[in-house]
Amino acid sequence: MKKQALLLLCSTLFFGCKKDLAPMSGCTDNTAVNYSANTITDDGSCIFFSTTPFIIETPSGFPDMNIPTNNPMTVEGVALGNKLFHDKILSGDGMQACASCHLQSAAFSDTNQFSTGIDGFIGDRNASTIINAGWNNSNFWDGRSITLEDQAHDPVVNPIEMNDNWPNVENKLNANSEYVQLFKQAFNIDYIDSNHVVMAIAQFERTLISANSKFDKYLRGETQLTASELAGYAIFNSEKGDCFHCHGTQMFMDNLFHNNGLDPEPFTDLGLAKVTGNSLDNGKFKTPTLRNIEASAPYMHDGRFSTLEEVVEHYNSGGVYSLTVDPLMKKLGVGLQLTNQEKQDLVAFLKTLTDTHFLDGN
Amino acid sequence: MKRIFVIFTTISLVFTACEKEEEIIEGCTDTGAVNYNTNATNDNGSCKYNLSLNFTHTVDGNALETDQMIYSNAASQNYSVQTLRYLLSDITLHSANGNSTLLDEVHFITISDPSTFNLDIQDLNSPNYTAISFTMGLDSLKNITDNYLNESFFPSFSWPDFMGGGYHYMQLEGDYTTAFQGYATHTGGTDGIDFSFTKNFPISLNIANANTTVTINMEINNWYSNPNIINLTTDGIMDNANKQALLQANGIADVFSVFYPIN
Asked: Which of A184, A246, A265, B3 shows a CA-CA span of 20 to 30 A to A23?
């Protein structure tokens, strides 16, 4: 092997001398960042593109995260995504970042019922949380984006949100030498395009993992729940409360869509049916995780409830009939019939899902 | 060494061919096998066969129609079917010599995804089978929380640890009596009791034909009729071991049937 290399080197040298091409030395490896096509001899100066893998630690009771093979997690990509997520450069007037409506302290949701875009337009759905989103089978309340990459394309150009356009965003980023360098380091690209912007943001979002709440510590035997919290846990996971069918497991969501009996027909927001065109999907919305639910008010796809007590009361009352209401919600006119104490217990349990480290960003 | 061997083999082959006129070619000689070799003169036992399993659902013998209040059970309740999801495990073919071939450890079927109605099995070693068996749900060795985190039926099929843990065997849901009442026939292990059951169907199956399909049918109405007449109710039954036992008995009786082509 060494002999072969030597032979190759010799012949190259010879060839080089004969043709008298300059410069003599540099980086000859075309996979290197500083590859020079005119160089004849390699002087060991090649610098190769390299990233540091970002290792996702799968929390207990979670499946493997489904990470697109064309967007592997890297430390450089995550850091870049974090910067982009918080940078107002992605909006039309430079006044809004993703983080403007996805506040970390609110579990990356908006404390307002509806978010206000740069031009003062007001949306019609409550901003989704970003909690363990790497395990989502789809994104948005209506599930219209399968991947987080696809999802991130939308708000930047949505006229009632950040209201920019991608060519303009690309121009702004390419004119920014810091971003040019960061994208080079993360993706080895010389021109920043929208696909790599959303790839970086998606990488960052996949790191927003919450699995260290009081409840998690209880499961790990590190802390105790109060009598009220335990009673709520039991109601949650029994047929009495029947919360677990949609908000079960340690993910506290089922990755499915349901009509939970909020409204009679006709619906002002068709939800999933807007995407599928199937009337049997009318009024169905993606089940949100209940992790950090205490911090992510207001609640429901349209933020109609401002307290957890109101949410529990909705299920306790049984909800409203419509054609597509989930069979599990059909105790219409009967409801769960929880006592006041049981309702308090349920809310107490829900508050054990608060992960202060996640909300503080520590 | 290699070269010598190759030369030796070539010489001996040429020599043999000259001497015998008709050479022996080893391979699969069964025309119904997927790897049938037209040139083979001697069957070397390498034949492979394919089989498709098809999962069908009926009510009173007719193909299931979802979301319509058109069915009536043995308790004279009208009902519709909106959701049907279930697990069949240890789907196994049995041969006359006592051998068994595991086709799938766990198969999840949901009427919202017709691709789950089919299970294509490739490269089976034998064309003849005398029985097919499967377990409705998961037996106690399999039915353990977190055993199937990466399967498509997680997290929606999980059964809370509070009620024994593991997974639902089946979620059969819809409306009954009026469109204002929902039922949820959710079966599974309850209070530490294993309610899964295994069905074994004797068959006389020869799959030495392309596109052989064996059908496993679930007759939905029979969950509620024989030997136990079961009333649909809005109350959840996951914590009701008595009801789970009644459903298990009905399931064993005549919910499942198997159809296969007779040669």
From this structure: A184
pLDDT at A10: 40
CA-to-CA distance for A338 and B157, rounded, in angstroms? Answer: 25
Question: Could B180 and A333 be called an inter-chain contact, meaning their C-beta atoms sit closer than 8 Å?
Answer: yes
Residue B261 CA to residue B211 CA, distance in Å, equals 10
Residues in B touching A326 (Cβ below 8 Å): 182
Residues B219/B59, Cβ–Cβ less than 8 Å: yes
- Residue B53's alpha-carbon distances to B59, B90, B117, B170, B207, in angstroms, are 20, 13, 8, 19, 12
ipTM over 0.90: no
List of chain A residues whose C-beta atoms are within 8 Å of the C-beta of residue B158 = 244, 248-249
Q: What is the CA radius of gyration of chain A?
A: 26
* A253 contacts on B by Cβ (under 8 Å): 155
Please tell me the predicted confidence (pLDDT) of residue A345: 98
Euclidean distance between CA atoms A59 and A252, whole angstroms: 13
For residues B20 and B154, give the distance between their C-alpha atoms in angstroms, rounded to a whole number. 62
> Would an 8 Å CB–CB cutoff place B236 in contact with chain A?
yes
- Compare all CA atoms of chain A with the CA of B173 and give the residue at the minimum distance: A327
Query: Do the chains contact at A63 and B238, CB–CB below 8 Å?
Result: no
- Is residue B8 scored above 70 in pLDDT? no
Q: In the predicted model, what is the mean pLDDT of residues A90-112?
A: 96
Q: How many CB atoms within 10 Å of residue B119?
A: 18
Q: How many CA atoms lie within 13 A of A194 on its CB side?
A: 15
Which residue intervals of A212-270 are DSSP H helices?
214-219, 227-236, 244-247
How do strand B168-176 and strand B178-188 relate by DSSP bridges?
antiparallel
- Band of residue A12 on the pLDDT scale cut at 50, 70, 90: very low
Which residues are A271's β-sheet partners? A284
pLDDT beyond 50 at A357: yes
Q: Do A327 and B83 touch (CB under 8 A)?
A: yes
